[in-house]
Design goal:
mainly alpha, 0% strand
Length: 290
C-alpha cells in the first residue's frame, strides 16, 4: 500500500466516522460509541489548552522573574549607596567629636580608645628619636619599629570603626544624635537615600509578590509541588504532551470500534442504504478493494 493510498483510506474512514457522528441513532449501540469518541476529542482539546497555558505561564515567569531581578538590582544599588553614606557619617561624626562639636557619646568609645593608643604610640616614637649612643639608638629603632607596626595596624581599623558608628546610627534611625554643622549635609543625604531605598524595596516586594502568585497559580493548575521558574514546568509540559498522545490513540481506538459496529450492521442488513453512513462506507470499502 502506498502512502497516498493509505492517506485516502484514512480520509475515507474519517468521512464514515463524521457521518456516523451526525446519525448516531442509525443502528443500536452506535450513539454510545460516538459519545465515547467525542469524549476523546474533548480530552485532547482540554490538554491542548493546558499546553498553551503552560507556554504562556513560562513566558510570564520569565518576564516577571526578570522584573524581580531588575528591582532587586536597583534596591541593592541603593543599599550600597546608603552604606557609603553611613561610612561618611561615622567619619564626619567622629571628626566633629574630636574638635568638640559633638559630645562624648558611647558610640565613639572604641574609636576614641584606638585614637588614644595611636596618639600615645606616636608620642613614644617621637621621644625615641632623641636616643643617644649607639646601643640606645639600636634599641630605640627596634622599639620604634614595633610601635610603628602597632600604629599602622590600629589606623587600618579606623575606617571599619567609623563605618560601624555610621551603620548603627543609620540602622537605628538615630542620626539626629550627631547632627552638627559638619554632619548636616550627609544626614540630609541619608534621609533622602532612605526614602529612595524604601520606594525601591516597595517595588521589589510588589514584583516578587506578583511573581510568587503566578508561580503558585501555576503549581495549583498543573498539579506541581513547587514552581520557582519556567524550568519547573517541564514535568507538566511532558505530562500534557503524553496525555495528548494518549488521547489520539483513544480517538483511533474509538473510531475503530465504530467502524467495526458499522461492519456488523452492514452484514446484518441493519443499515439504511440511503443514509450518508452507507454512502461513506461504500467509498471506504472500494478503497480497501483496490
Amino acid at each position: 500500500m502506498t502512502d497516498f493510498h493509505a492517506a485516502q483510506i484514512e480520509q475515507a474512514e474519517d468521512a464514515v466516522l463524521e457521518a456516523a457522528d451526525m446519525l448516531p441513532n442509525l443502528v443500536d449501540g452506535l450513539e454510545e460509541l460516538c459519545v465515547a469518541r467525542r469524549r476523546t476529542f474533548q480530552a485532547e482539546r482540554v490538554l491542548e489548552e493546558d499546553l498553551a497555558a503552560v507556554e504562556l505561564v513560562k513566558d510570564q515567569l520569565d518576564e516577571k522573574g526578570s522584573r524581580v531581578a531588575e528591582r532587586r538590582k536597583d534596591a541593592d544599588k541603593a543599599t550600597k549607596e546608603l552604606e557609603k553614606l553611613a561610612q561618611e557619617l561615622g567619619t564626619e561624626a567622629f571628626a566633629a567629636r574630636e574638635v568638640g562639636d559633638l559630645a562624648d557619646l558611647s558610640i565613639f568609645n572604641e574609636r576614641q580608645a584606638a585614637q588614644k593608643d595611636v596618639d600615645a604610640w606616636e608620642g613614644e616614637i617621637t621621644e625615641l628619636k632623641e636616643a643617644k649612643g649607639f646601643g640606645a639608638i639600636v634599641k630605640a629603632k627596634a622599639k620604634q619599629a614595633q610601635l610603628l607596626a602597632k600604629t599602622a595596624a590600629t589606623k587600618a581599623r579606623f575606617r571599619g570603626m567609623e563605618r560601624e558608628i555610621g551603620r548603627g546610627l543609620v540602622e537605628e534611625g538615630t542620626e539626629e544624635l550627631v547632627r552638627c554643622d559638619q554632619t548636616e549635609v550627609v544626614i540630609t543625604k541619608i534621609k533622602s537615600q532612605k526614602e529612595t531605598l524604601a520606594a525601591l524595596e516597595g517595588l521589589l516586594n510588589d514584583a516578587n509578590s506578583d511573581f510568587m502568585k503566578t508561580a503558585a497559580d501555576a503549581a495549583d493548575r498543573f498539579a506541581l509541588d513547587h514552581v520557582s521558574s519556567h524550568k519547573d514546568l517541564t514535568a507538566a509540559n511532558k505530562r500534557i504532551k503524553e496525555g495528548i498522545k494518549q488521547s489520539k490513540k483513544d480517538q483511533r481506538a474509538a473510531g475503530k470500534r465504530i467502524l467495526e459496529r458499522l461492519d456488523v450492521a452492514v452484514s446484518l442488513g441493519e443499515l439504511d442504504h440511503e443514509s450518508m453512513v452507507w454512502q461513506a462506507l461504500k467509498g471506504l470499502r472500494a478503497l480497501h478493494e483496490e
